[in-house]
Write a structure and sequence with these properties.
Vps5_C, PX domain-containing protein, single chain, AH/BAR_dom_sf, about 70% helix, mainly alpha
Amino acid sequence: MISPERSPSQSPRSTAAAAGAPFLSISVTDPVKMGTGVQAYISYRVITKTNLPEFEGPEKIVIRRYSDFEWLHDRLAERYKGIFIPPLPEKNAVEKFRFSKEFIELRRQALDLFVNRIASHPELKQSEVLRVFLQADEEKMDRARSYETGIFKRPADFLQMFKSKVSDVVLGKEKPVEESTPEYEKLKNYIFELENHLAEAQKQAYRLVKRHRELGQSLAEFGKAIKLLGACEGDMMEKVFSEVGSKSEMLSIKLQREADNLLFNFEEPLKDYVRAVQSIKATMMDRANAFRQHFDLDQERKYKELNLEKLKFMNPEKYAEAESEFRELKADSEEATKKFEHIVRLMNEELARFQEQKTADIGLAFHEFAKGQAKLAKDIADAWRSILPKLEACSTS
């Protein structure tokens, strides 16, 4: 059983159109399995509605697959250092579940959330690669994906480079230079703690989903068994036990529905924020790389500046050439410093936006959880309470 789409606050839709204000609304719909065997994949209709002048028209419908969403994510990550790129759902899945209705719907909702977060971001929504993703036909999209993935390194490549750097440090080949201000240390500790606590909450939410389904299945089997027992007994017992069995089967359905509600509206939002923290950590790695470049060039600049003063008096013939090299190095150092400071500024803005959205989304998820549990508890209590008089009459007869 598949739950309806998550609430508008989690998958934003602009209502500005009615007022004539600028808007950009995107829907990821109609997942369809294409191909067979190992070549099989899911395609999606991506519907864009907008009145922004940089788009080709008020509505555009394109067909996209997961690798196209991945292309969009990777290009944004390359171009927008310092910004938390919205996370994608996991690429890999156990083969036997990869094309299940539940998995497909979970992925569709996650992809819808991904593109709408980009569309609602003040900078990312202006990206040329977003317009390509939303408007290019399949042939152009394939060309763009093939061309750019051939030129740019993918995040996995950067991760491998990072691992190589770590190996160099462990082997004593290179001493790491890390930004270590009290504010940044506090931020890093918070992010790692947040990741751990979110992951644990999501794990427990998964267990709740599983237990609801197991209890629902047990009640269904119990209902069948108690009906057979009643039929064996006959007379009044048969009628009462049949009603007990029917109530059990009815509650089984409610438990399965609540399990779906928990999955889509509680566990999945928690899992989404585990992924979001991974995006923050990727931005922190960009910041660390920018800091190292800024630090290394600044140290080299200071060293060359001292040597330049010595050359001025000790070797005037080489001074002009050294001065030209120093000016070039100084420009590079200043550019690296600006880049690092730009990432720091963007990260501060992104953290404020992230905290605000996290509070709203996680608050909504827990509200949905509590509301669902309260309704389920009432339904269970009402169901069993309704047959208590008949069971009491049966037990005293």
